[in-house]
Amino acid sequence: MKIVKAEEMHVEEALKLAIGEYENQCRQIKQLPEIHVTDQLRELITGLFRKNYGFAALCEGKMAGYLAFTGPIEGYFGNCRGAYSPLGGNAFSGYDRGRVCSKLVEAGMEQLLREAQVTSFAMTRYADDSVVDRSLVLNGFGIRCSDAVMDLEGFEVRKTSQDGVTFKELPGEEKKRVLDLRYGLVKHMSVSPIFFPTDIRQYMMHLPKEESRIFAALKGEEVIGYLSICDEGETFISETNSMYNICGAFVKEEYRGKQVADDLLAYACNVCKKEGIQYLGVDCETLNPNALRFWGKHFKNYTYSYHRRIDERAIGYESYLKKGWISNL
Questions:
Q1: pLDDT digits 0-9 by tens, 105-117
Q2: Burial class (CB within 10 angstroms; exposed 0-12, middle 13-18, buried 19+) of 151
Q3: What is the CATH number of domain 152-298?
Q4: Is the terminal CB of the chain with fewer CB neighbours within 10 Å at N or C?
Q5: Do the bridges between strand 300-309 and strand 120-126 make them parallel or antiparallel, or are there none, so unpaired?
């Protein structure tokens, strides 16, 4: 196996691997849209290979895998510099793809640490490749979030009536009515076991103008829960015109366990289906046990995102070690 720098001349070989992984995942996850992804993936891979943080694994002259990162990114999951390999930014083939993955991770992290002082690494993978999953875990990565999908074709439009609870979409300035709920969500995400702090000011400044649609559950005039959707997502799959993506949801604690969240989701599904949308996607932190259980009842995971934070003392340690060793000889 030979590890080489990924360049534009490798794009078409990499594209074949990426398409093969997507088609394999479609065979395993029937809810995924079978869309034409060649142009999207070619553009993504080409852009990543141009960024100079990518490697390819060659076996007997043929590509066995590739891994490319975008970055460096300041403040990436901590007060550190990071890099990210999105879905389609990596692919591995063959029975020994776990080893291929490990060798490419080694090369990518070494370059990014040395050249850009990157210590936070993340990558998104399809959810059903147990071989690569095991390789990443043994290389120190842990799962921190996932993307999931629902095929609305199988969703039956149903009534969402509860005693005293109504559902509606909030237009324009009315979106501000969910600010306290968004604060509750941000607070929930910032504590154990999630520990995911977010700048709440971005919600306060942009909420009325943002393009996301907000559906609310109301008890009288009180907004007790909300769910927001948009046409943007976290993967190239979620960018398809036939899919909307959930980008936030929260129900007040005193109303949980009463099917408010289930009915709010059903209300949003009713609206999407009537508008001709075929798929609904969601991404959530797997570190959030409440969200993981709720979305898992209705959606099927198709990706996991893996993350590894390395010890910042590794920056410059090789030169320090060499200097210290020689001075003591």
A1: 999 999 999 999 9
A2: middle
A3: 3.40.630.30
A4: C
A5: antiparallel
